[in-house]
Specification:
Low-confidence stretches: 50-55
Helix content: 25-40%
Number of strands: 10
Oligomer: single chain
Radius of gyration: 20 Å
Number of helices: 9
Shape: globular
Structural class: alpha/beta
Largest sheet: 5 strands, parallel
Distance between the termini: 46 Å
Order of helices and strands: EEEHEHEHEHEHEHEHEHH
Length: 260
Amino acid sequence: MTDQLKVGGFTLRSRLIVGTGKYKDFEETKAALEASGADMVTVAVRRLDLKSAAGESLLGYLREKKYTLLPNTAGCYTAEDAVRTCRLARELGIAGLVKVEVLGDPQTLFPDVVQTLEAARILVKEGFTVLPYTTDDPITAKKLEDIGCAAVMPLAAPIGSGLGIRNPYNLEIIRNTIKVPVIVDAGVGTASDAAIAMELGCDAVLMNTAIAGAREPVRMARAMRLAVEAGREAFLAGRIPKRLYATASSPLEGVIGSKN
C-alpha cells in the first residue's frame, strides 16, 4: 500500500488504532484485533500483566503477532504520574511510542491540558515519541506540535460516550493548522463516526469501547475497519461541493429533440 501512515519513525498500514480493554475474554480480544486489521494497539501500562511475556498473556500475544504497541498512561491525573508511567514502559521495552493521557476529572475524563503540555514537554526532551490525548482545541494542538509531539489526538466526544463527532469544525481546523498526524481519540460510537472523521481529513482513528462494547465486537471491528478505509478513500477522492439546487447527472447537450 502506498497510502501509509507515518508517525514519528513508525509506518502503519492501517489507519485504525484499537484498544485492548473491556472485552469479555482473551479469545474475543484476539478475534476483534484480527478483524479490525489494525497493526497498532494501545495498552494501559498500569493494567498489563507485565510479569509474563509468553503463553496467553496479552503482552506476549501482541508481541508474537508483531503489533506496534502504543502504551498509554490511562488513570494518570498529573504530569509527574504520566511521566513516571512512560518511564516504566520504557524499562519494560514497550515504549517506542507513548500515548500521554493526563485526565482532569474522573467523571468526564476530559484531559487536563496544562498537565498534558507539561508531561509532553518532559517526555519529548527524554526522547519519547509522544502522542498526546487532548481536547479539540486548535491552539492546544499547535502547542503540542511545537513542543515536538509526533501526532495529536483530539477527542471527538468524552471517552466511552459513543456520542460521535461533536465538533467537526474544530477537527477540520486542527487538520488545516498542524503538519503532524491528527488521530481522533475517544467518543466514536459506530462506523459512520469513524468514516466522518476520516472524510474530514484526519489521519487515523483510535477506539476501544465502540468495538469492545458492541453487541458483536468482532463484527463491529470489521465494520470500523471498512469505515476507516472508506472514509480515507472518500477524502482522497474529493467530495463534490454542496449545492442548494439539483445538478443533472446526465448532461442535456446532444439529447434527441434538444436545440443544443
